[in-house]
Amino acid sequence: MSQEFTEDERVQLAQLVMNIFGDWEIAPELQLMLLGLPEKTRQRELTRFKHGTPLPDDEELLDRARHIIGINSSLHLLYPLNRNMASFWLRTRNRMLRGTPLHIMADNGLAGMNRIWRHLDCTQNWDD
């Protein structure tokens, strides 16, 4: 996915992703992993993202953000009456996926996120 984002758009993406992580109740260490930030990145970067620092202009990181937003959107379409279901679903072992979605995303990065999103949203498979 090669798409250019303005700085303002990257600020909005950062805030949206941080809000999603808050809804998902994900630990800061896992947030850093899901975004694909370097291991030595300090957790305070997450706070900066939440308060107006734009996401880095990095294609893979922005693609990860797109996947996080897509996964969240799919979960809310599947479970529209229960906002807590997204967090529950991500932490519950899924027989079809052979693991918990959150661990699949953390362990496999963008490929894992793609797998989870495709599982939730059949339209993601239309690209193939």
Structure overview:
This protein has 128 residues and is mainly α. Helix 1 crosses helix 4 (59-78) and helix 2 (28-35) crosses helix 6. The two termini are 14 Å apart. It has 6 helices and no strands. The radius of gyration is 14 Å and the shape is globular. The protein has helices spanning 7-24, 28-35, 44-50, 59-78, 85-91, 101-120. 62% of the residues lie in helices and 0% in strands. The mean pLDDT is 92.
Instruction: Label the overall shape.
Output: globular
Strand count, sense and barrel status of the largest sheet are:
none
Low-pLDDT ranges: none
N- and C-termini, Cα separation: 14 Å
Secondary structure: helix percent: 55-70%
Q: How many DSSP H or I helices?
A: 6
- What string, H for helix and E for strand, traces the elements in order? HHHHHH
Strand percentage: under 5%
Mean pLDDT: 92
> How many DSSP E strands?
0
Structural class: mainly alpha
What Rg do the Cα atoms give? 14 Å
Summary of the model, kept short:
By secondary structure, the protein is mostly helical. The protein is built from six helices and no strands. The mean pLDDT is 92.
